[in-house]
Amino acid sequence: MHILEIGFSDYDDTDDGLQGIIDPMFRTVPKENTTFLIWRVENSSIVLLPKSQYGTFYDGDCYIIYASSIYGHPAGPNVIKRDVKNAKMESHIHFWLGAKATPDSTGAAAYKAVELDAHLGGSSVQHREVQGHESARLKSYFKDGIKLFKSNGADSKVRLYRVYGRCPVFSELDDVSWQHFCSSGVFILETPDTIFIWIGRAANTVEKLHGTKIALKTGKATSKGQIERPIVFLNDGYEQTLRNDKKLLFQKYLNLQHRHVKTTEEEVNGKEKGESKHSIRLYKCWHTATKYRIEEIKPGPLLQSDLNSNEVYILDNGVHGIWIWVGRKVSLKERAEAIRNARGFVKKKHYPSFTPVIRVPEDNAPLEFKTLFKTWKNSDMQAEANARVAKAATTRFDAQTLHHATWLSAQTQLVDDGTGVIKIWRVTTTGLVEILSSVLGIFFNADCYVVFYTYHHPEGESSIIYYWIGSCSTPELRKIAEKGAREMHTKLDRIPMNVRVIQGKEPAHFLQIFKGRMITFVGKATDCDSSGMILRSPSHYLVRVSGKFTREARGTEVVGDGREKKLDHRGVCYILRSGARCWVWCATNATGDEREVAKQMASTEHVLIMQGKEKADFWDALGNKRTILTADPQRETEDILPARLFYVSMGSPGYFEEIVSFSQADLSPEYIVVLDAHCCVYVWTGAYSCTAGKDSAINIALKYLRSDPSGRDDSIPIMVLSQGSETPTFTGFFPTWDRTLWTGHKSYERVRRELEGKFDSDGMTVNNNVETSLFDQYDKYPLSVLRGPSDKLPSSIDPLLKELYLTHDDFVSTFGVPYNQFKTLPIWKQKDFKKGAGLF
After folding, report:
1. Which of 267, 377, 536, 571 is most buried, with most CB under 10 Å away?
2. Among 483, 450, 448, 479, which Cα is nearest to 467's?
3. Helices then strands, each counted (H, E), the chain
4. Residue 380: its pLDDT value, please?
């Protein structure tokens, strides 16, 4: 295995904070209280900040942020300080390093974090945070976003800011220059008289809305008698359409003759290229006489059992984070040095300096860490989980109960008891064929099906569209099934939930609607009925049965003698049918619930046989499959971790940003989010989210699953739902749910129209809003680049359509007309124009 050695030269030039002294400011921090505090580091001391300054950071400073809360509950400035008993706590220490902070200041911040942790007993999770690369957890504390200012920019009257992220982050840039601009960004130019907001062509709607609201706050009066500054919108590539007086004012600070805006491709190939998936690896750490040694143990997927309480480990997830886990039995010195040693690892691996480094104590691992593992047992949460399971086992699952007890709906993944109306279509190469059979629950593994389910609940009627993919179906059938379900979903205004189901990974409700009688047979439906419109089972089969409840019951036909894939076919109950005769075979370790599920699935008259009591007629009917009847050993059930919520950035490049300790208030009509319930993944699309995201929701979920370093199975159910049509299986994961929350919400377009209309009436600005067209969807390049030889063009450019990569302003200056007029010209005339411009 690969071994790294970390020497003195690999460490940051900082004090290690092991003097045994704890700052007097920290001695007053309560150890068993929920609280939230921030200190600024000044020389080698710290100053407690007033709450009014929380969320504002300066690039020349360093800060210590301490957040303590009940496990899984939100933390932040508004947390109520109180003593907590009989509840598990979690505490996080973040030391934030400004981009222009001195080495002395960053070193002081590091060892002050160690001092605070020592006062708290060494049980806190420590995070090293670098300006511009703040963790999702740190940003989650500040619901209105964070502000990053220049330490030496206090006297400047003209400033340029960028607004980015869901949080959002409002970051002051080093100078007012075109070099900062990019097509996916939203920028605010603050001048003494006017606030300009520049909207990148590829900027996402969330950042547009945040930028508009921040610009409004920035332009408002700050003292009595001060006049509110007007807001002027500029669209990327349409700057020349500004009214002359505003254009002259804008050019005073940003000359349009020097305009250069980085394209999406330049961003991807530049600073953002480190965002690709990294293969997670586990390392073991120990001291020698002169070195700190780090030995690679294994690549992912990782198991909780890979960790030992006597050791220190590093989980290497590349630029996404270096986690150093310290066992409860390691020395205090090793715990205190953990962040320093992990930083040495970052430098040795030549990772960027901003790479997140997090120290995790064994008994206080946060959820973000646990989900890096394939399996994780939560002994501290097991009592609560067991109590809920016991309650669920004795509860009715009718729609009324589940729509009131949404936590139960989320836990069981049921919306009702399956007594609604079902329609089924079998997918063929020519489209969907409705099934006429009244016998429901028969599927074939070479087919695909679309299932439409309608049910009544206290608030009315709802529907769900399932499309089921057989394990042996062709790629062509799978595409037709997905397309058919998506078209049905779109035609119904995206109101029904749309669910992708892979054979063997059917969600609980899908199984429930077949009343415990779902069986998947080998082959196609046409094998048993030439029309394929009547689903009939074969006359001879052996079916393995799994599940203890109706919502878990599935049967799978077993073919061959099972020798090659014996482990795939082991079970505790089987159904054997030969002509008119039927047997239900149960292993000695089958529970009563499992036997009842098998008997119900057999449905017809049958003979119940216990293992060891078989008769000759049974063995004769079974034939060469008797080796399959090997009882499945009892498997230890895995704990289900709490659900996680991720904001989906639809920009380029796209990314997933976790929303820590989420609530419904963290959703917005502009958002697309992924809710990871572990057993399934939901994609929620807001009313004002982009159409492209709504249409590619399944692909968004697949991208999320495939980027998960724990090695997730991407065949788990994917459920797509829209704002206003949420099922209790989704809302039950939120602490509370209010269907009126977004009443009166204003979209970005509406807020912008109102602002432009307001300032128009005063004669202060003009409407620069331009209707988005196909032309605006292309990356934009300078005319000089597009006139170059075709073999030297950026890869994203189609050499036959160079004109589409001009900005609107360059297009008009080159051809004399806007694109929408140009495209109406005869093709020969378009070619002549392009030749004359050097673009053909």
Report:
1. 571
2. 450
3. 23, 38
4. 54
Amino acid found at 686: G
Pairing label, strands 460-469, 497-502: parallel
| Alpha helix (H) residue ranges in 224-331 | 244-253, 264-269
- The encoded tokens of residue 473 equal 């179906």
Confidence at residue 278, expressed as pLDDT on a 0 to 100 scale: 64
Burial of 458 (0-12, 13-18, 19+ CB in 10 A): exposed
Integer CA distances (angstroms), 185 to 140, 148, 272, 405, in order: 22, 16, 13, 43
Full DSSP string of 765-809: ---------GGGGS----HHHHTS-GGGS-TT--GGGGGGGS-HH
| Residue ranges in the chain whose pLDDT is less than 50 | 15, 17, 225, 268-275, 382-383, 386, 390, 393-394, 563-568, 761-767, 769-771
Cα–Cα distances in angstroms (integers) from residue 298 to residues 126, 281, 309, 442, in the given order: 25, 6, 18, 43
Assign 3-class secondary structure to 811-833: HHHHHCCCHHHHCCCCHHHHHHH
Interval 695-705: pLDDT, tens: 999 999 999 99
* Secondary structure (DSSP) of 522-573: SS-GGGT-TTSSS----SEEEEEEE-SSGGG-EEEE--S-SSTTHHHH-BSE
Taking alpha carbons only, the member of 586, 585, 577 closest to residue 604 is 577
394 CB burial (10 A radius; 0-12, 13-18, 19+):
exposed
Helical axes 748-761 vs 205-219, angle rounded to 10°: 30
Dist. CA 342–CA 450, nearest whole Å: 51
Burial class (CB in 10 A: 0-12, 13-18, 19+), 14: middle
User: What span, in angstroms and rounded, lies between the C-alpha atoms of 502 and 716?
Assistant: 7
* CB of 294 closer than 8 Å to CB of 284: yes
Spatial neighbors of 392 by CB under 8 A, at least 6 apart, are: 408, 411, 412
Distance of alpha carbon 163 from alpha carbon 672, whole angstroms: 19
The pLDDT score that the predictor gives to residue 277 is 57
Contacts of 189 (CB under 8 A, 6+ apart): 158, 159, 160, 176, 195, 196, 197, 198, 250, 253, 254
As to burial, measured by CB atoms within 10 angstroms (0-12 exposed, 13-18 middle, 19+ buried), residue 478 is: middle
Question: What span, in angstroms and rounded, lies between the C-alpha atoms of 340 and 349?
Answer: 14
Residue-wise DSSP of 498-510: EEEEETT---HHH
Q: Which two tokens stand for residue 103?
A: 């080495």
Spatial contact of 204 and 182, defined as CB atoms under 8 Å apart? no
Please tell me the predicted confidence (pLDDT) of residue 532: 85
Burial track 724-754 (b if 16+ CB lie within 10 A, e otherwise) = ebbbbbbbbbbeeeeeeebeeeebbeeebee
- What is the rounded distance in angstroms from the CA atom of residue 88 to the CA atom of residue 510? 36
Assess contact for 557 and 541: CB atoms under 8 A.
yes
Question: Between the CA of residue 645 and those of 140, 370, 673, what are the distances in Å?
Answer: 12, 15, 7
Residue 563, classified by CB atoms within 10 Å of its CB into exposed (0-12), middle (13-18) or buried (19+), is exposed
Q: What count of residues does the chain have?
A: 840
Element (H, E) at 388: helix 382-393
pTM of the model: 0.89
